[in-house]
Amino acid sequence: MGVDIGLRVTSYAIVDVRGNVIAHNQFPTLDHPNINDYATFLSERLIEMMEANGGYDTIRSVGVGVHSGNFVKGSIENSSTLPWKGEVPLATMLRDRLGMAVAVGNNAHVRALGEHTFGKAHGMSDFIVLTLGPGMGSCIFSNGQPHLGNEGFAGEIGHVCINPTGRLCGCGQRGCLEAYCAEEGVVLTATKLLDKTDKPSKLRQYDILNEKHIIDCCKEGDTIAQETIYRTGVMLGIGLANYASVVNPEAIIFTGILSDAGQYLLDPAREAFEDNVFHNMRGKVKFLTSTFNDNRMQNVLGASVLAWQVQEYSLFK
Amino acid sequence: MGVDIGLRVTSYAIVDVRGNVIAHNQFPTLDHPNINDYATFLSERLIEMMEANGGYDTIRSVGVGVHSGNFVKGSIENSSTLPWKGEVPLATMLRDRLGMAVAVGNNAHVRALGEHTFGKAHGMSDFIVLTLGPGMGSCIFSNGQPHLGNEGFAGEIGHVCINPTGRLCGCGQRGCLEAYCAEEGVVLTATKLLDKTDKPSKLRQYDILNEKHIIDCCKEGDTIAQETIYRTGVMLGIGLANYASVVNPEAIIFTGILSDAGQYLLDPAREAFEDNVFHNMRGKVKFLTSTFNDNRMQNVLGASVLAWQVQEYSLFK
Amino acid sequence: MGVDIGLRVTSYAIVDVRGNVIAHNQFPTLDHPNINDYATFLSERLIEMMEANGGYDTIRSVGVGVHSGNFVKGSIENSSTLPWKGEVPLATMLRDRLGMAVAVGNNAHVRALGEHTFGKAHGMSDFIVLTLGPGMGSCIFSNGQPHLGNEGFAGEIGHVCINPTGRLCGCGQRGCLEAYCAEEGVVLTATKLLDKTDKPSKLRQYDILNEKHIIDCCKEGDTIAQETIYRTGVMLGIGLANYASVVNPEAIIFTGILSDAGQYLLDPAREAFEDNVFHNMRGKVKFLTSTFNDNRMQNVLGASVLAWQVQEYSLFK
Amino acid sequence: MGVDIGLRVTSYAIVDVRGNVIAHNQFPTLDHPNINDYATFLSERLIEMMEANGGYDTIRSVGVGVHSGNFVKGSIENSSTLPWKGEVPLATMLRDRLGMAVAVGNNAHVRALGEHTFGKAHGMSDFIVLTLGPGMGSCIFSNGQPHLGNEGFAGEIGHVCINPTGRLCGCGQRGCLEAYCAEEGVVLTATKLLDKTDKPSKLRQYDILNEKHIIDCCKEGDTIAQETIYRTGVMLGIGLANYASVVNPEAIIFTGILSDAGQYLLDPAREAFEDNVFHNMRGKVKFLTSTFNDNRMQNVLGASVLAWQVQEYSLFK
User: Fold this and answer.
1) Is the ipTM of this complex over 0.90?
2) What are the backbone dihedrals phi and psi of residue A127, each rounded to the nearest 5 degrees, phi first?
3) How distant is the Cα of C274 from the closest Cα of chain A, in angstroms?
C-alpha cells in the first residue's frame, strides 16, 4: 500500500506490482493534530481498506511519503510544515499498530521512485527528479539506486544558494533557489513585476495570488505572468547547472505544480542551464516533465514502490 | 598496476592488493607529445617493470588516473591541459599494446577510490572527496559506489557558480569556485591583497608566486598569506554548503596541495559551510584531510584500485 | 519490446513499463533456418509493430529471451535445440538491423526477471525461479540482482546429479535432475510405470505421451499419472534441497508446464525437500507457483524487463 | 578489529585498512561456558588491546567470525559445536559492552571476505570460497557481493547430498558431502582403506588418526594416505560440479586444513569436476588455493573486513 501524507490531505491506496490502483481514499491530515491519534486513525483506515480488498494477508507492507520523511531512520524529522514537531518515529508507530512492515520516505524520494518504476526515468541509472511545489526537493539516482545521503537528508536543492546577495529565504539565508522557484518565491516575483508597472495583467484580478493563477495566465498569454515564469526558469536553470556539473545526470525530470508551466518554464531554464553548466555536458542533459498529472496519486504510487523496499515484517520480530 | 599521468610527470607502480608499492618509477609526460608514441613508450615501461618484478603473468590489469579521464568510455576527453586533444581512447590504445585490461579514470575518481580503499573514507558509504590543486575535482560516493554520472563527467565542482557577478573564470563564466579556490585563483587573491596595501609580507619576495609559497608563509605567520587562505576557505565553505545540501555526505575529505594549509583553510571553510548549509545538516558533516601526503603516490595507489574494477582481458576478446 | 524465441514460435510484443501488453504477434521460428534471414525477418516485424503503435522513437530497446541465451555476451551459445549452431551474436545482429539497443538472455533469466518485476517474487532479494518444461533452468537472485555467473551460464540445475548410478541423461552423465524432471524424463517415468503393471490408466490411450497428458490425467485422478508426478516431485525435492542448502532462498517459484501439476507435484517435492535440506532451513523456504499462466506471454513480459537492463543505443556508438 | 571465535581458541587483532595486523592475542574459548561471562571477558580483552594500541577512539567497529554466525541477525544460531546453545544475540551483547558497532558472520562468510579483500579473489565478482576443515562451509560471491541468503544461512555445502545411498552423516542424512570431505569423513576413508588391506602404511603408527597426519603422510609418499586424499578429491569434485553448474563461478578457492594437500586433492577433484559439470563450463572454472597459510589469522583478517560492513555505532542509537 502507498500513503501520501500531504499538508492538507492524507491519501492512501492499494497498488499492485504493476502500479494499478485497486482502491484509494483520503482524509484531512489536520483532523489529527496529535501524532498518536493520527497514527491510530490512519492504521484503522488502512486495515479497513485491506479487509475490503482481498484481505490483510494479501498486503506485504506499507510505504509512506511525507514532508521531511527520513527513510534511513523511518521518521519525520523536524518538519517545518506538519503539525507534529521534532523527530516522529512514524514507521515504528505504524508498524506496531498494523503488524506489518512500514517504510517512510520524503516526497522527493518517493516521487523519484515513482518516476523510476513507472515513469520517465524507467531504465535510467543516473538522473535527478526535481519537485517544484510549495517547497522544492530533489532526488539523485546513482548507479540505479536513490542516493539518500548519510543521514537521509539528501536533496535539499531548495536551499542551494545561487546569489549570496539575493532575496532573503525563509531559512534565514540569502539567495536560496527556493526563494525564487518555490511557490511563494514565484508569487513574489509576480507581485514585484506587477508593482513596477501599470501594464494591465490578468494577475491583478486575484486578491491572493497563487502559483496556479500565474501558470494559467501565462498559458493564456499574459505577459507579466510569462515574464514571471521566464525569470523563474532562468533562476532554476542556473541552480540546476551547478547541480548537474557535479552530478552529470542523464536527465532532469520536473514534477510538481510549477512543472505544469511546461515550455514557458523549461525553455528559459534550458537556456540558462546551457550557459552555466560545465562545457562537456552542454546539450547532453535531457529536460523532461513527469508523465503523472496528478501529484497526489504520483506520491501514493511512489509510496507504494517504497513499500517494497522495506524488509518483510517477520524480519523485525 | 597503477599509472598517474600528471601534467609534468607520469608515475607508475606495481601495487599489491594491500596497497604495498612493490616497484615504482616515472618519466616526463611531455617527452611524448604524440599520443601514439606516448602510449607505446608507457606500455614498454610497464612491461619492463612487470618483467623485473614477478613477471607479466602476475599482473591482472592496469589502472590509469589522468586529467579529464572518462571511466565510462575509457578515454581522455577534451583535456584543457594535456598535449593530446579531442577524445583519446587511451584504454583501448594501452590494452592493445599490453594485451591486458586497462581502466582509465579522472584524478578525482582515482583519488576517491584510494581514500575509500586505503584512506579516511574506508567503511563509508556516502562521502565526497575534494581535490584542490591546479584545478578542482570532486567525487561523490553513493551507496558505497562512486557516482560517475551518465557520461562519466560527474564531479566538476570547480565550475559550480557561487557568485554570478564574481571573478571571471578561464571557462568563460563568472564566479566559478575554481576562480577562487584552484591554484591560480588563490594566487590572484594574494596578489590583489598585496596590491591593496603596503604592509610587509614574505610573499613579496617571490617573483612568481605559487600556492606552495602562500601555504608556507601562512604557516609561518604571514598575515597576508593567512588572509588569502582565510578568504579561500570562506569561498570553499560556501561552495561545499551548496553541494552538501543536495548530497548529505558523511564526510568531505580534502586532498591536493591546498589541503596542506590544514586548519588555516578548514576553519573558515567550516564556518562558512555551517552558515550556508541546510539546517538539518549543520554540525553533521565531517571535514577530514587525506592521510596521503604524497599526491603523486596517492594517484598511483588510487589508479591501482581502479585497475581491479575493469573486467579481465579474456572478456574483451 | 520483448521477444521470446521459442523452439516452435517466436512471440514479440510492445510492453509498457507497467507490464501492459500494447501489441503482440508471433511467427514460426523454424521458417528461417538461416540466422541472418531470421534476424532480418524478426527486425522487420519488430519495426512494423513499432510503427503501428506509437512509432519507432517511442521504443527504448529490445529484450530477447532464448534457449542458451547469454546476457553477458549477448549471444546464443551452443543451443542444443535451436537450428542455429555455435555462438550466435544475436544482440549485435539485431542492434545493427534495428538501430536500437538489444539485450539477450536465457529463458530462466528472463522468467526470473518477470517474476521479480511483475510476479510472485516482487520485493524479494534472495530467491530461485525454477522453470520446468522441455528442459530445466533456474535463476538465483542474490541481493536483489540476478546471479548470472562469470560466463553467463549460471542456472543449469537440470544437470545437477542427484544419483551417480541413476538414469542416463542426454548430456552423457547419469542421474541428472533433468533425466527425471524435464518433459522427457517425466514421460519416461510414466512409461516405465505403465510397463510394470497391467493396471488400467487413461495414459494408455495416447500413442505419443507428453507431459500435458500426464498432468491432465493426474488431475483427473489417474493413479499411474499421479504416481508419475509424485515420483517426479520427490526427485525435484531432493535436487532442490541440495540447491537450497547452499543458497538459502526466501522462496522457490515454480514455472513452466510441469508446475501446472500444482500440489500433486509440490506436496511430494516439499516433503522430500524438508527431509534433505540443511536443518536450519527446514520449514523456512516458500514453494510458490508463478502467477503467469501463459508461458509464452510470461517470457515476452520477462524479455521486456530485460530490455531495460541494457544501456541505451547512443552509448554503443 | 577482527575476532575469530574458534572451538578451542578465540583470537583477536587490531587490523588496519590494508590488512596489517597491529596487535593480536588469544585465549581459550572454553574457559567461559556461560555466554554472558564470555562476552564480558572478550569485551574487556578488546578494550585492553585498543587502549594499548592508539586508543579506543581509533577503532571504528568490531567484526566477529564464528561457527553458525548469522550476519543478518547478528547472532550465533544453533551451533552444534560451541557450548552456547540456541540463538545467541552476540552482536548486541558485544555492542552493549563495547559501545561500538559489532558485526557477526560465520566462518565461510568471513573467509570469503578475506579472500576478496586481501587474497586470491581480489577483483573477482562471481566466485566460491570453500572451507575444508572439521566441517565444511562455502560462500558464493555474486555481482561482487557475498550471497548470504534470506535467513543468513547460505553456504551449507557440507550437507549437499551426492549419493542418496551413501555414507551416513552426523546430520542424519546419507551421502552428505561432509561425510566424505570434512575431517571425520577423511579419517573414516583412511581407516576403511587401512582395514581392507595389510599393506604397510605410515598411517598405522597413529593411535588417533587426524587429517593432518593423512596430509603429511600423503606428501611423504604413503600410498594409502594418497588413496585417501584421491578419493576425497573425487567426491569433492562431484559435489562442486553440481554447485558450479548452478552458480557458474570464475574460480573456486580452497581454504582450510585439507587444502594443504594441494595437488593431491585438487587434481582428482578437478578431474571429477570436469567429468560432471555442465559441458559449457568445462575447463573454465579456476581451482585456486588460498594464499593465507594460517587459518586462524585468515579468520581474524576476514573478520576485520566484516567490521567495516556494519554501520557506525552512532546510527544504532
Assistant:
1) no
2) -155, 170
3) 21
